[in-house]
Every structure is written in C-alpha cells, then in structure tokens.
C-alpha cells in the first residue's frame, strides 16, 4: 500500500498557480509558537489550513490520557480538509510542532472554487483524504500488533513506498523525535535502532534523507 506513512510528495505549491495565492497569503496568514493549539476537537470553524512554514501535529488522546499522533505535516500540506466531505466539527487536536509555524487560512468556499477551476487540484484533494484514512487505519493496526522495532522498520519501508533499491535515497522532513511520535516509541529507541542499522551497513541516515545500502539484509527482518 503506497504513501501510507507520509505524503511528502504532495506539495500544493507545485499544484496551485503561485500568482493566485501570493496576495492571499499576505492577508490570511497565521503564526503559532510551538505547542500552541490551532484547533480543538468539536471546534466547528469551517476553515482549511495550509502549512507555509514549520510543522503541525494532528493528534488525539486515548482513555489513559496518552497522546496518539496521527500525522505530522510540513510545508505545502493541508489539514482540516474533511469539512469538504461535510464534517461539521473537528475530531482531533491540531498543534503547532515547529518552533514557529506559519499557516495560510483557506475558506471552504475558496477551496471549492480552486477545486472547480483546477481539475488536477480537485483530484489531489480527494486522493489526499482517501490516503489519509487508509494511513491512519494502518498506523493504528501496527501500533497494536507490532513492537517498536517492527514499527520503525515499517515506517522506513513505507518511506520508500515499498519499492526500494540499493543506494536509493529518499528525502524526508522528520526528526528522530517526529518519527518516535508517529510510531509510538521514544526518541532514544529510534536513535539506537537507526545507529544500529547504519553500523550494519543497511542504511545511511541524516536529518533530511535515508539511503538504503543493503536491501537484501534489510528485507530479511521485515
């Protein structure tokens, strides 16, 4: 199943005409500091957000009060889009995750007009919604059924879209802390496992990229 953990190739800046949004950004920008809540569950504001800079975490809390991170979004990604399907209230928290996060606020009418005027953009939005539903369903299944190392391996595999080859490099926007939150473990666990895979010659890992060095060895433990 492709694009399960991330949709980092979906960049609205490459889909929308920049001249259409340039002036709109100037008058509809929002700024949040790390940890500030953008919206709460049950909020009924009919708005959609575009990440212009920084990161946004979408999350819920389980019955024990533990945070469950559904998505971490970066520049060029939207959220709050389910109102296009008739959702009247939010079902999650949206929290600024970057030190300073800049958002562009889009009204539902503005989005519908853009989708009507740009067929490619409209198809992108509906595909985005469908993929996110599948992604969250699989994440919950993996969190329940697999241990921390298996969840990390699944995360790496899905970054490569299940089609990785030796010496292939993929870009990613996630810190080790981001990855830990997404797979439900500690940053120390992610760091330890990534270092182990690097020493074994399986991968090269940096803050912005992962290169697969030994597909055969890596595949044996998946």
TrEMBL record:
Domain (Cyclic nucleotide-binding): residue spans on this chain: 32-110
SMART domains: cNMP, HTH_CRP
UniProt keyword DNA-binding, yes or no: yes
InterPro entries the UniProt entry points to: cNMP-bd_dom, cNMP-bd_dom_sf, Env_Response_Regulators, HTH_CRP, RmlC-like_jellyroll, WH_DNA-bd_sf
One Pfam family it belongs to: cNMP_binding
Keywords: DNA-binding, Transcription, Transcription regulation
Cell membrane is among the record's keywords: no
UniProt protein name: Cyclic nucleotide-binding domain-containing protein
Domain HTH crp-type: 146-216
Gene3D superfamilies assigned: Jelly Rolls
Organism: Flammeovirga yaeyamensis
One function term, GO molecular function aspect: DNA binding
Highest rank taxon of the organism: Bacteria
